[in-house]
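Teaching assistant's notes for section 4

Start the section by putting this record on the projector. Ask students to predict, before seeing the second block, whether histidine kinase will look compact or extended. Collect guesses on the board.
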Amino acid sequence: MTVAAGSRPHRPRWRRIVRWLGLPPPVERWLRRRLPRRLFARSILIIVVPMIVLQSVVTFVFLDRHWENMTQRLSVATASEIAAVVELLELSPPELRPVILQSATDNLFSAVNLLPGQHLPAPHPKRFFSLLDRTLSREISRQVARPFWIDTVESTRWVEIRVKTSAGILQIITRRSHTYASDSHITLVWMVGTSLVLIAVALLFLKGQVRPIQELAAAAESFGRGKPVDTYRPHGAIEVRQAAWAFLEMRQRIERHIEQRTAMLAGVSHDLRTILTRFRLELALLGNEEETRALSADVDEMQAMLEDYLAFARTDIDEHADDVVVASLIAEAVRGYPKVKTFVPEELTAPVRPTATRRLIANLVGNAVAYAHRVEVRASTGKSLIVTVDDDGPGIPESERRAVFQPFYRLDSARNRNRGGTGLGLTIARDIARRQGGDVVLGESPLGGLRATVRLPL
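Reveal the predicted structure now:
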């Protein structure tokens, strides 16, 4: 890349941010490969990533400061009440135990009973995440200090606790809301729900903001390919409207320049053709002599050179692209070259500029016919219209395949100046292809000579 003296190469802002963060080169390359390239996707990241980070921090703080603390306090209170009931049962005479159980049921828990037997049930499998099990079990172990069994799995509303005492197996059933902060999940649901709503609103808003940019890009691409853009109207944010109005003004200036250029070329062409016609008439009056024949050949060569120069200077941007039958287009382009074979499906169609594309193919075919005995033309479509022109001529060295597209460039080898011409055929062909968003590339032909490949986007 060439950089003017005193200037600094432009780097994308995200790349400068990555460098400012000081990430290792492997991590930087990994991020560069995985960052989205479309504006809509990057805008989504700008909104969604901070929101996810913020919600994660808030959730962590909430769980740590509120949920766990509240659960801790409720578990401590529950364990203290259980310890009090156990102590009363063990210290009171048997006849008072029903009164103690009834009082605990009425004032502390949902149900308190003494079960027969001296064995606790087998413990339930632990869940992956059970804040209640850990906290409540820890407090019962610390305050009650007796073998116990706890069930927080079977029911979503109740917690069953059994404690082995000297009076028997004490069964306590209480609400889950009395042992831990059971309504905390509502807050988390609200956080997640509001985040999803905000993300959905942001996506709809971003889609509306990105659409005018996409329409502007489509209009610019259509204008470059010769398609009409009269229906495009600027809309969207102020900055997008400014860019759209600048594009429309640029289109008008280009069209005015083309009109002036076309009018000038038409005048020059008319004047020069008039002079050449007078030359031909004067030569015809001189008779069919050897000198007049040489002058007549020079006039013909001047006429051909004039047509080539005008074709090079003339633009076809005012010609709109239309759906054309490719086989008919190529057949017209190769008319007058009987030895050229075409292999084009009859049903093949493509949206191209008919006149310009016909001239493009005719230039490539004429260049091939001038130096080869066998010429073949093929066409196919996919994402682009691809036309290949193969010949069995001497070809062009790889080192000169780019130079031959320069105006007036002539080879000194087998394709030399003795063949005539102005050196503008390939230049005009590539110019026409690039005006439609495509290109012309030269390579090796299966026939042993040169292959010219035309790609025109559809």
